[in-house]
Amino acid sequence: MASQNARADSLSLLLFTLRSGKLMAINLLKVSEIIPCPPLTKLPESHPHVKGVATLRGNSLSVIDLSRAIGERPLEDPDGGCLIVTDISRSKQGLHVQAVSKIVHCLSTDIKPPPYGSGSKSFITGVTRVDNTLVQVLDIEKVIHGIAPPTHEVVTSELSAEDAAVLAATNILVVDDSQVALQQSVHTLRNLGIECHTARSAKDAINTLLELQGTEREINVVVSDIEMSEMDGYAFTRTLRETPDFQHLYVLLHTSLDSAMNSDKAKDAGANAVLTKFSSPDLTDCLIVAARTVAFEER
């Protein structure tokens, strides 16, 4: 039986504030730089949560009014503050915040799930404490999705009969603590005619694996986020590899960070592959490889 004790991996959080002054955080690996808020060019008919466009070293950068995007009061000085420039899910964007506080180092086990009852409108994926002060970890993927929902590429018609058959025979579990990211993966699978199981944490995923073990729906492919609270994707993968009943599972780590910078760590944890979110065609290709691998090993 798998151990459900969280494995500890270190991570760094960038703490920042909005007008309310309460501390929020974002994974430092998602941040490319921090700059004073530059002059912005407002675009007609842009989303109301987009303050405008900045020019950063010759490139255009959309600037999100983070206060408005998560339902908080606007900053006292709309032209002040600073930008947290993030580089996630294959795109860059600037988050306009009141001030950046500091960088703190902690363990993944220090990040707890959001309080029960936070609701679907919550923009946090976890909470932690720094110097006895509550810190909310921002769900940046949900913020971006609310402003620019991705277009879903339908890839079903591109599948060969052989690939469609091997995918249909695969039982997939998708694990992600971001509801938006989870829905994106599920949408891709449904376009392929595949229903999958889902979990919002590594703990829930292990419970699902145990529940389905020995049934006709027993999981053989796991698609897991990396940046999760309590037990991240690396620790989750190591736990699976150390558990005899789950050592055989094909594990694809699906991350909003650049997969190239995570490939070595993913390999060390025992993952079969790593992929940067979010591209339906790329996810489909990875799932076909996973399904073929599982089918070959089960012969």
Which characteristics define this entry?
30% strand, globular, 28% helix, alpha/beta, 15 strands, Rossmann fold, phosphoprotein, OB fold (Dihydrolipoamide Acetyltransferase, E2P), disordered N terminus, 299 residues, 2 domains, five-stranded mixed beta sheet, single chain, Chemotax_regulator_CheV
What does the model show?
It holds the Pfam family Response_reg. It comes from Pseudomonas donghuensis. Keywords: Phosphoprotein. The modification 4-aspartylphosphate is found at residue 225. This protein has helices at 66-69, 140-147, 161-168, 179-191, 202-212, 233-241, 259-269, 280-298; strands at residues 10-17, 23-27, 31-36, 50-56, 59-65, 82-88, 91-97, 99-107, 124-130, 133-138, 172-175, 197-199, 221-225, 250-255, 273-276. By secondary structure, the protein is an alpha/beta fold. The protein folds into two domains: 10-147, Beta Barrel (OB fold (Dihydrolipoamide Acetyltransferase, E2P)); 156-298, Response regulator (Rossmann fold, 3-Layer(aba) Sandwich), CATH 3.40.50. The chain has a five-stranded mixed sheet with strand order 8-1-2-10-9, with no helix packed on it. The protein has a five-stranded mixed sheet with strand order 3-6-7-5-4. A hairpin with a 2-residue loop joins strand 4 and strand 5 (59-65). The chain starts with 9 loop residues before the first strand and ends with a helix. The model is unreliable at 1-6 (pLDDT under 50).
Look at the structure and give the CATH class of the largest domain: Alpha Beta
Class based on secondary structure composition and strand pairing:
alpha/beta
Tell me the β content.
25-35%
Nearest-angstrom radius of gyration?
Answer: 20 Å
Strand order of the largest sheet: 8-1-2-10-9
Q: Classify the helix fraction into a percent range.
A: 25-40%
The average pLDDT score comes to 88
**Main beta sheet strand tally, sense and closure:** 5 strands, mixed
Domain CheW-like: 10-149
Protein name: Chemotaxis protein CheV
InterPro entries: Chemotax_regulator_CheV, CheW-like_dom_sf, CheW-lke_dom, CheY-like_superfamily, Sig_transdc_resp-reg_receiver
Domain Response regulatory: 171-292
